[in-house]
Amino acid sequence: MIIERHQDVTPAVLEVMQRTRDPRLREIMVSLVKHLHSFVRDVRLTEAEFREATAVLSEIGQRTTATHNEMVLMAGSLGVSSLICLLNNGDHGNTETSQSLLGPFWRLNSPPVPNGGSIVRSETPGDPLLVNGRVTDQAGHPIAGAEVDVWHASPVGFYDNQDPAQADYNLRGKFTTDADGRFWFRSVKMMGYPIPTDGVVGRLLKAQDRHPYRPAHLHALIFKPGFKVLISQVYDPSDPHIDTDVQFGVTKALIGDFIRHDEPHPTEPDVPSPWYSLDYDYVMESGEAVLPRPPIK
Ligand SMILES: [Fe+2]
Fold it and tell me: 155 alpha carbon to ligand 1 midpoint, in Å?
């Protein structure tokens, strides 16, 4: 069709989208064009703004490398990552879920550690943290023999790969759940940290007077054949940014039971006070155990 007026553009494009052979791709493209054109009409996007928008998208791509993903940061900063996580888990968004965002710092080959062991591999000053986790199915039955990969930032907010002062794989380890679905380990209490702000996402946060912080959290990736891989983050409710996570990842189900103890540890005399404990139950859903692609090496 030959276009005469702006009203003709959307039907012309939709007619082409309708010819997409794959039905799911067709559904996505038809809806995308409808919403995209509506958005342009809604805000009456100017030519200068459109040129700026295309430049921003190009910059997001150009800034994305093997060690930095500006696109993932933007998706998180707009709440899209959180929305997709909650729509696709917890019985398709009907119940709470232990699932959360993978984030950009998971590494594939974390070293195995026996239960009770420590994931501190180099001098890392900070308060001791003793973690007790349990992995169950949705009916509450323990899942034995699940591989639990954990990782977290240091007490000053850096992951091992961001910080030359830390040993390789510091604050990372892989555990196996016992017959009761339990795993446990020692570490140091992590801090929250700012996401990188030297790109497009940083300019957006500045324009909205938003801080760049994520509240302190413990990452886990739990693998057991017969279950959907559980990608989780458990958050510290005492963190000052617990209700303003820049990536919108905090949900009520992911608030951890972090407790400060000023008295000596009852059974581990070498743990100095104050020390912290974290108890958390991870719930896996049935499904296919497919590992995500590691965002970094
Ligand atoms: Fe993180």
Answer: 13
Centroid of ligand 1 to alpha carbon of 226 (angstroms): 27
Cα-to-centroid distance, 270 and ligand 1 (Å): 28
Give distance in angstroms: CA of 214 to centre of ligand 1.
8
Ligand 1 centroid to Cα of residue 215, in Å, is: 9
Cα 65 to middle of ligand 1, angstroms: 18
Q: What is the pLDDT of residues 244-287, one digit of tens each?
A: 999 999 999 999 999 999 999 999 889 999 999 999 999 999 99
Residue 123 carries which side chain, given as an amino acid letter?
A: E
The confidence score (pLDDT) of residue 296 equals 67
pLDDT attached to residue 254? 97
Q: Which two tokens stand for residue 118?
A: 């420590």
Q: Is the pTM for the entire model greater than 0.85?
A: yes
10-residue block means of pLDDT along the chain (297 residues)? 94 98 98 98 98 97 87 94 94 91 88 97 94 97 98 93 91 98 97 94 98 97 97 96 97 95 91 95 95 79
End-to-end CA distance of the chain: give it in Å, rounded.
50
Q: How far apart are CA 261 and CA 276, in angstroms?
A: 6
Helix 6-17 vs helix 23-43: crossing angle, to nearest 10: 170
* Strands in the chain per DSSP E: 128-136, 147-152, 172-176, 182-188, 193-194, 213-214, 217-223, 230-235, 257-261, 275-283
**Distance (Å) from CA 242 to ligand 1 centroid:** 13
Q: 152 CA distance to ligand 1 centroid (A)? A: 6
Q: Rounded to an integer, what distance in angstroms lies between the CA atom of residue 32 and that of residue 39?
A: 10
Please spell the DSSP secondary structure of 147-209, one letter per residue: EEEEEE--TTS--GGG-TTSPTTTTEEEEE--TTSEEEEEEE----EEPP-SSHHHHHHHHTT
